[in-house]
């Protein structure tokens, strides 16, 4: 199943990382929160990636990087650009858009070696992703690390890309969608289903069992109502940059909320609101132009 496959891939990656030299990146100096409890070895933290840890969707940034390396043509980039612009405007995941993006990515990487995509993923992180990490969320993750806890990304993005991001942020590892490979070459198929919605909760539960974690002492962070099953698993759920449905749900259950996107908080993390609006408008215009060229 998707959750078990993701959990197994995450544990293998984390075990390999223990023997490698860690890579740490600094945050913006955002104050460390009171939670988590220091020294609690049965607690861990699980972070959604898209719009929680990073602005935008990892799969779209990855697509931009692959286009730059001529993995596909301009007409395919139009689809990635349109989906990314919509994602940034809406602020939450649309299942149809995300499924289309995954299908596109699978067809693009089919026949390529896993090692090749991992190497390219490192480059794409530096080119398109590093500057889009939310400093506030990064500080939350660091607080768990400083408390001696493990921190995992949990995302529908390909597990190889998620592992690159986790390693570059100094996190423990990542749960992600697992693409099938034979002999180190992608087949263009998935192992199980994409790690989305309830599948994330399944993967977190499987990893917690394998790691002997007490979920009531763990924390989870997400921006999307699609992740309510994962957030509901843990004793310390956080709504980060929440969509309207998650915000309403979080307020009803008195979950903690953090929003780093607009107003005073956006300025605090170094993202002026006016600049953000301009970026969205520019991205939308570019997407529309590309979409029209296809017709």
Structural class: alpha/beta
Poorly predicted spans: 17-30, 263-295
- Main sheet specs: 6 strands, parallel
Q: What percent of residues adopt helix (DSSP H or I)?
A: 40-55%
From the spread of the alpha carbons, the general shape counts as: globular
How would you state the average pLDDT, rounded? 77
Total count of helical runs of at least 4 residues? 12
- How widely separated are the two ends? 39 Å
Q: List the strand order in the largest sheet.
A: 3-2-1-6-7-8
Give the percentage of residues in beta strands: 5-15%
Tell me the radius of gyration.
Answer: 18 Å
Helix-strand string: HEHHHHHEHEEEHEHEHEHH
Question: What's the count of strands?
Answer: 8
Region (Disordered): 1-35
Family: Belongs to the HAD-like hydrolase superfamily. SerB family.
GO molecular function: hydrolase activity
Transmembrane segments: 269-290
């Amino acid at each position: 199943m998707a959750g078990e496959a993701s959990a197994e891939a995450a544990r293998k990656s984390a075990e390999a990382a223990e023997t490698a030299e860690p890579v740490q990146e600094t945050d913006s100096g955002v104050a460390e929160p009171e939670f988590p409890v220091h020294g609690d070895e049965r607690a861990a933290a699980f972070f959604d990636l898209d719009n929680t840890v990073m602005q935008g969707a990892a799969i779209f940034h990855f697509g931009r990087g692959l286009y730059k390396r001529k993995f596909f043509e301009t007409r395919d980039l139009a689809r990635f650009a349109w989906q990314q612009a919509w994602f940034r405007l809406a602020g939450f995941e649309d299942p149809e858009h995300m499924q289309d993006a995954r299908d596109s990515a699978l067809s693009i990487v089919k026949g390529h070696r896993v090692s090749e995509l991992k190497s390219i993923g490192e480059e794409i992180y530096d080119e398109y992703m590093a500057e889009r990490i939310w400093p506030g969320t990064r500080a939350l993750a660091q607080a768990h690390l400083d408390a001696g806890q493990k921190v995992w990304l949990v995302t529908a993005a390909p597990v190889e890309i998620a592992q690159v991001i986790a390693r570059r942020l100094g996190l423990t590892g990542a749960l992600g969608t697992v693409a099938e490979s034979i002999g180190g070459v992608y087949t263009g198929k998935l192992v199980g289903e994409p790690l989305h919605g309830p599948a994330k909760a399944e993967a977190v539960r499987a990893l917690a069992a394998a790691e002997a974690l007490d979920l009531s002492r763990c924390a989870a962070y997400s921006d999307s109502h699609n992740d309510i099953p994962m957030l509901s698993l843990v004793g310390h759920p956080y709504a980060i940059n929440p969509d309207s449905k998650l915000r309403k749900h979080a307020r009803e259950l008195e979950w903690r909320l953090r929003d780093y996107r607009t107003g005073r908080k956006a300025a605090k993390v170094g993202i002026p609101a006016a600049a953000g609006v301009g970026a969205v408008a520019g991205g939308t215009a570019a997407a529309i132009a590309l979409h029209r060229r296809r017709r």
